[in-house]
């Protein structure tokens, strides 16, 4: 097996040695073909087998664009510029685009450059991928295209900017940077910061342009209001002088505030249980008031005038006119045990106090006839209720005032 394989190898080597000139020529030809194909397809991007469609792009000016430049879709090459023609309104650029690429008709088109030295190309920047799409023979209007600022305009604006530079101040900056060996690093940091600022402003170019235009109006207005600004500055100066005189008061306020807040916090801590009960009662009262909003609206109508209007209505014809009603007022019997008015034992109030008179002409505006939600049966005591039952005793805490018979002994010592 080894002898047979070695014999084949020897015969192949011998054949190659006898025909070495032909094999060298074939290798050179194959290398030439591969290199040519690589240059045409890889470098020059010649695709003879791909189909494409032509579009015409109306530009206000060429912007440095030349034939055979790239056509890209958000930076991805999709075609090339075939020709440029001068039109009455600008320049018409004819470009070919691969047929497998769909570009919306309303896509903005701009002429961009790879570097300040040139290498311009056409770039499509569509806002969406919805149709209709460009096709063979489509024309993109000039209103949908833009070109970069020319080098001449850049140099003209740079000349105006350089005229505003003060050589004396520039010399002072150079002198300050040369005082230490860290001057070059500081200058590099300044340039890096400026580059970062410019790149950030370029990413929001429409907003930056709007800010510059608006700032011109603002600064012009500020220049017109310069006398008023000077007066405001003087007033602010006097205000700050007064504030400076009260610095000691502010410092005492800041020093005493922690103690006050701590005392307030202790107050809430000592009364946390009572406050929880108070908040619970307030929540219950809020719910009861919410369902009785119609009754409250009827109790406080908005069609009445003010007290001053009422007083003014009784003053006329050089006198005060009033009406006296001597008819005795109706009193209601609640059915609860009566206590002597002279009792000084601070009794708890009765729990069920309802008027027992069922005459509909009595207490028309009383609590018994107040509007209630559907299903509310609180117009009278519960069935079988004890009318002599009193409320729960008042809870006694740290700050409760003692209520012995006849009242507490005065003066009352405050709680510590």
TrEMBL record:
InterPro entries: Mce/MlaD, Mce_C, MlaD_Phospholipid_Transporter. The keyword Transmembrane applies. Coiled coil: none annotated. Keywords: Membrane, Transmembrane, Transmembrane helix. Residues 52-126 form the Mce/MlaD domain. Residues 366-416 are annotated as: Disordered. It comes from the Bacteria. Pfam families: Mce4_CUP1 (PF11887), MlaD (PF02470). Signal peptide: none annotated. The chain crosses the membrane at residues 21-41. Residues 134-304 form the Mammalian cell entry C-terminal domain. This is MlaD family protein. It comes from Mycolicibacterium pallens.
